[in-house]
Amino acid sequence: MARSPPAWPIPSAVLSIERTSRGKLVVELDNGQVWHQLDSDNTIVPLPDERSGMTAETRERMLGSTSIELSGTGRSFRATRIR
């Protein structure tokens, strides 16, 4: 039986957010997924000081790319799943 694709967007709670030495975001979600901002994405996402309760919406974009929007930032960035 074929699996149907997930419904988009997919909301998740954010467990942790880090910036790499290059300023890119790495976001760990409560569903076990870890997403890394693409090196080719130059979006600067301002992070709030208070991050408890922060959520992320994962959206599929054209040509199979994925974007992540973090609550309270008003911005989204392209990302690749690393776990």
Fold blueprint:
Blueprint: E1 10-19, E2 25-29, E3 34-37, E4 55-60, E5 66-70, E6 76-81
Antiparallel strand pairs: 1-2, 1-4, 2-3, 3-6, 4-5, 5-6
Give me the strand/helix succession: EEEEEE
Instruction: List the total number of helices.
Output: 0
Average pLDDT rating: 90
What's the β-strand tally? 6
Computed over alpha carbons, the radius of gyration is: 13 Å
Could you give the order of strands across the largest sheet?
1-2-3-6-5-4
Which percent band covers the strand fraction? 35-45%
Low-confidence stretches: none
Decide which structural class fits the backbone.
mainly beta
Helix content: under 10%
Largest sheet: 6 strands, antiparallel, barrel
- Backbone shape: globular
Q: Total domains, how many?
A: 1
Rounded to the nearest angstrom, the distance between the terminal CA atoms is 25 Å
Q: Would you give an account of this structure?
A:
- The protein has 83 residues and is mainly β.
- It has one domain (10-81).
- The protein has no helices and 6 strands.
- Strands 1-2-3-6-5-4 form a 6-stranded antiparallel barrel.
- Strand 4 (55-60) and strand 5 (66-70) form a beta hairpin.
